[in-house]
Amino acid sequence: PGSVSAAFQEHLKHLGLQDFPCGFGSWNKSRLNARRSPRAEPAGLEKDVPVGEETPEALLELLRDQHSPWALPPDCSPQDRLLREVAALAPELLHGSGVFQLVKSLRILDKGVEEVDEGLLRFQQLEELILSANHISRVTSAHLPRTLKVLELCCNAVDDLQDLCAWPPPELQHLGLGYNRLCGPFQEKHLTVDFWPNLVSLDLSFNSLTDPLELVSQLSTLQNLHILVLQGNPLALIPTYRGFLVDSLPKLSILDDIHIRPEERQQFHGLARQPELIRSEARVVVSIGEMKGLPNPEAFQQLEVGSEGPVITYSYCVTYEF
């Protein structure tokens, strides 16, 4: 599927919400008819259930028992379990657009999704959207539910934040953009309080951000930011990187998954006022312990002086990629 909506519909088929022990069928016919007819007595007790039908308790047991052929895998999400149980107890709630009203967390991982389409607006209660390990390069903010609090886009191909920041969800608390293709110097301007007034956690790890001064000037406007991940960016190679970030963003509690201790903050006090220490260069020392598959130079020393043996020259090239 190319869109989030298509991937979600495919996922619903996998859950089998219309098949036994979920959905409508001969296994719950009288119970559902009782709900539709106000004058009918509901069949709530097992002794009142007609032959060939199942009680709600029995249907739930088929879904929850790990040995049942209808049980979900142990690693399935709580959201999937909820939808299955609702489909067994009250399948009428999932008809039409009902399923979209129940979903608060949507996880679509590694499904080849390329587009965050406007079909997401049908999820009027959605708070968490996880779209990691897909092929998304652009996110149109107008397609995101306004109720969203968590947006995770790790391991995609996002290289520009302009579309995402055109009309972002105002209540968003976590934005995950790790392992994407963001690079400076124009992306930092989208990381301010004007776009993310309630952001608490921000993951920008393993992108291509290089300018810590510009990044800090924008992030300092995020008054609620307490968790920041920047490891894996070129700017993290700067020797004074951590100290400069810690002193420049006093409200941070965690930087690169490491808690900021009071003594660490005291140690780096004053670095924020010394931008000259932030240099866009680093020295890398490479030590080669052992090389295999190369001719032994000692073999050439056995040739006698003045001998007419062939002269063989070897050239080697070592390439370092950062």
UniProtKB/TrEMBL annotation:
SUPFAM superfamilies cross-referenced by the UniProt entry: Outer arm dynein light chain 1
Top-rank taxon: Eukaryota
Record protein name field: LRC43 protein
One GO CC annotation: cytoplasm
Keyword Lipid metabolism among record annotations: no
Alphabetical UniProt keywords: Leucine-rich repeat, Repeat
Pfam families hit by this protein: LRR_1
